[in-house]
Amino acid sequence: MALKLKFLILCGFTLAAYLAAISREQSLPWLLAALLSAALLTGVLWPRWLLQRLSVRRVGPQRALEGETIVFRIDVQNRGWLPRFMVELVDRLPFVDAAERGANDGDKLLGSVAYVPGRGARSFDVPLLCEKRGFYKLGPMGLASSFPLGLAEARSRADRSLQTLTIYPKVFPILSLPLFGAPSQIHRGGYCLPEGAGAAEFSGLREYRRGDNPRHIHWPTTARLNELMVKEFEPLASASICIALDLAKDANIGRGKHSTLEYAIRIAASVAAYACSQNMHSRVLAAAAQPLRILSGKGDFHYQAILDALAVAEADGVTPYAKLLTEIALNCVRGETVLLLLAEPPHRNAETLQALALLRAKGVYLFAVLFERDSFFSNASWAKNHAGDRTLNAGLLELGAHCVTVRRGDDLTELFNR
């Protein structure tokens, strides 16, 4: 707007100078009008010339963690013989300032190059903060200039190569979780022991029965008693976690980084990290526009798959949480722990409790994270008129669930390590 105003003002002065020169037979008004015309043409055409024969390239990481500062390397190349002055670098970086407003598709000024020599290059580094997890398409990068008079701005997209950036959710450390075991198959005399150690432990000796596995015969005791004796094993309970995300639109309260969805993603990623570090099986399920189904597994590759999915998860679903929980109940493993992330509207509490009762009937343990919806509303008076239904808390306690309440601004590291 300021550039346009300057241009119009100079056009007005130039027109006035020519009108004055026409009405007078003097050389000075014509000289003044010529100078104003030259300034007008220079202010409009010079910026366009400055951007010719210039190219720019951005080099940087394609993956980062939420809260991490990454560095982009910017290279400006002048393919012309004459130098270029005062060129600005602009780029589309939607992850910048995304914590409050969400993804921003506007151009961001990265800096300016005062001088690029003919047939030369300039390079510099730009540090940027990754404020919010997600998958972002960057660029294309461009150049801009309004030098020397600031009358008009010329722009060009000098870099046609696009780059993507995946920002993974920030993970907080968890020292322990109140998990229970999921008993494995009982490995007694009639079964072969598993290859992995720790699936069963020795509990004693007993007399050989028909059908027992000969591999389990304890020969020293058999020789001493002159009677076949076999080793008996008891199963060890190994914990497994099912992370149930609620990606329904009406279950996401708040904006940007300070929303129930972002808190839930961070908690889910941190619990998955804890499970993989403890060599536990974990899986992630969610109903959204793009259903999230990560089967049970463990290890670094499994954890990376979970992070990739959580980085792009969005609250765009319409499926009630109760339906997802019912689906989990139909395919659950007895003794499994289901991580519940509850932020849905109070009018769905009744059907959600019914689904949770079905899970408990299947022998599943419940670890419930309840988001205090009122704390995530920006308008406190509006939130007060829509206070959450307390029946869900009471119902969870009756089902024997371990409950953790999360409010906006809570320190999740402290909350989960008490």
How does this model look, in words?
Helix content is 32%, strand content 31%. By secondary structure, it is α/β, with parallel strands linked by helices. It folds into three domains: 1-168, Immunoglobulins (Immunoglobulin-like, Sandwich); 185-235, no CATH class; 238-415, Rossmann fold (3-Layer(aba) Sandwich). The strands form seven sheets. The chain has a six-stranded mixed sheet, with helices on both faces. The protein has a four-stranded antiparallel sheet with strand order 5-4-8-9, covered by helices on one side. Helix 8 (349-361) links the parallel strand 20 and strand 21 (365-371). The protein starts with a helix and ends with a helix.
Short overview:
With 418 residues, this protein is an alpha/beta fold. It is built from twelve helices and 22 strands.
Q: Strand sequence of the main sheet, in spatial order?
A: 19-18-15-20-21-22
The count of helical stretches stands at 12
Shape, per Cα inertia axes: elongated
CATH architecture annotation name of the largest domain: 3-Layer(aba) Sandwich
Tell me the CATH topology of the largest domain: Rossmann fold
Separation of termini? 56 Å
Radius of gyration: 33 Å
Number of spatially distinct domains: 3
Q: Residue share in helices?
A: 25-40%
Task: Output the CATH class name of the largest domain.
Answer: Alpha Beta
Largest sheet: 6 strands, mixed
CATH superfamily of the largest domain: von Willebrand factor, type A domain
Helix-strand category: alpha/beta
| Low-confidence spans | 184-199, 380-388
Total strands: the figure is: 22
